[in-house]
Specification:
globular; single chain; 49% helix; mainly alpha
Length: 161
């Protein structure tokens, strides 16, 4: 299993306590129904990376429309000084969706509770998509997707952040 210090240090202290407060689920704590984080055993026929987490109704951690709207809102805030064309805007959002779902899948596969990932999604997006406090270029986000496709999520820049 990969070293998760980067992820756990963002969401909790070294003692495992949540730095945000005890009422909010910490990403490095087990789900309430589980004694400790357990990565699901998933075999993919093509030998690819982890499957995108879905519930019993085949829904991802959050509805697609809600995810797209939240990502669009985040992009509008973090690109206020940039003059993005409609095509650039659409390309960035499409790439962010792929990256976010891939990272979510890897985190769930690594044993992090889906509810905690969902609760921390805004923080995760901040350091994955806006590491300097502003949006990156469409080409950069597209390279992230290519990297995930070619080398796997855990080898990608967004996951390593």
């Amino acid at each position: 299993m990969d070293d998760h210090r980067g992820w756990t240090s963002i969401f909790g202290t070294s003692s495992g306590e949540n730095s945000v407060g005890s009422s909010e689920a910490s990403i490095n704590q087990p789900a309430p129904h589980s004694p400790e984080p357990v990565a699901p055993e998933v075999d993919q026929p093509d030998g690819g990376g982890p499957l995108i987490p879905e519930d019993a109704n085949h829904n991802h951690l959050m509805p697609a429309q809600e995810r797209m709207e939240e990502l669009a809102h985040g992009l509008s805030i973090n690109s206020i000084t940039k003059n993005l064309s409609r095509n650039e805007w659409a390309g960035i959002i499409a790439a962010q969706i792929v990256v976010e779902e891939s990272v979510e899948a890897a985190l769930v596969d690594d044993g992090f509770p889906p509810d905690a990932i969902l609760a921390k999604r805004h923080q995760i997006r901040g350091f994955m998509f806006y590491p300097q406090g502003t949006s990156l270029t469409e080409k950069t986000y597209a390279r992230y997707v290519t990297s995930i496709d070619n080398f796997g999520t855990r080898a990608s820049v967004p996951y390593k952040r």
